[in-house]
Amino acid sequence: MHSTESHERVFLVGLAEKRAARVPGIEPGHAGRESLAELAELARSAGAEVAGSIIQMREKPDPATLVGQGKLQEIEIEARMHNAHLVIFDANLTPTQQRNIESALDCNVIDRTQLILDIFARHARSREGQLQVELAQLNYLLPRLAGKRKELSRLGGGIGTRGPGEQKLETDRRRIRERISRIQKDIEMVRKQRSLRREKRHAVPLGTVALVGYTNAGKSTLFNALSKAGVLVSPKMFATLDPTVRAVRLPSGRRILLSDTVGFIRSLPPALIAAFRATLEEVQEASLLLHVTDVSNPQHAEQDMEVEKVLADLGVNGRPRLLVCNKIDKLSEKDLSELAASREAGEKNGKVFVSALTGKNLDELLIRMDTAAPVDEVVRIRLKIPLSDGRMLALVHALGRVISSATDDSAMRVEADVPESLARRLRAYAVA
Prior knowledge:
Blueprint: E1 9-17, H1 30-45, E2 49-58, H2 69-81, E3 86-89, H3 95-105, E4 108-111, H4 112-123, H5 127-141, H6 173-203, E5 207-213, H7 219-227, E6 244-249, E7 255-260, H8 270-273, H9 277-285, E8 288-294, H10 300-313, E9 321-326, H11 333-341, E10 351-353, H12 362-372, E11 378-386, H13 390-399, E12 401-408, E13 411-419, H14 420-425
Parallel strand pairs: 1-2, 1-3, 3-4, 5-7, 5-8, 8-9, 9-10
Antiparallel strand pairs: 6-7, 11-13, 12-13
């Protein structure tokens, strides 16, 4: 995988549907402009230099070219004036649309999906993450081989064509299908290994709390602040692709497993969701969700709705959750007081206003997590555990709070507060 930034000059094209502008209170093209601004951030995250952009207002997308032949001529002129050799469309182009647009513009063209795949290829670190990204890239490319420009018949050449770094992409369908088949087998093997690790985690009585939210909402910063994990923190989109899980002790003394997950984004095609299935399975397994939102972003309400859509698709929208309003350090006192006042009395689990960067109100968040997470009652227990049984001794120290301990011949006498589920497993070692 390439680690150097390409800084390729790109020209962005957005589409705003006129019928979407008829919603009362929303100015024409608002959603299209917001989406185009997000595309610019995605392009920069992929190492591009955004040379310029244009947005087309239409009643509906043109089935052949998305924006119409007349607009394509204007785009061609603008791209040349800005010395941009790659045009990125803020849409998911069909293979036919992409071929028609490339033919008209006489330059490389990619869409939103291909750009996101490029970012995924940059950030996937685990074996499974890299396999999933390569699989998504090959499935995306397969129907687009006919008439594909020579420059894009390989991976690794820049924005939207960045491959896993294994080899040049063969444009022969048979070879691609064979590669897809091998990747699917490898992914299944990795998934079985991860499933075994999860089963081992389940054998230890700890609830799981998953961080979810829009990309760049500050989840990894919050994860680090709560778990002291040292996970990569980056302002670039999709900096976190691979799941990271750490144990966190709550104020009551019990421990939970905290999971950091990939950020969500609007208009994410279902095929791309599979490219970070590992982190989404952590969400589905979680007993409590922390929905992290960047309240300093003027569009945070719209971003929250996109997150809700993905959670609904995953079947976890009814799961207990806390809305963590992050980045309050960027707000004025007036804005912060207005946000706090707007809290709905009946809102499930309410909101917690924090700054993961400065640590403000994280103590309150931990208390709220303690209250909201399913309860595994803490009980006091006296134990006599053989010194040879290091695993059980380690469990008591890791998951409980040791009050006192003393060596007694070949055993350790321990008094500790432990989760009730662990106490049941330790029953054979209990003493009066």
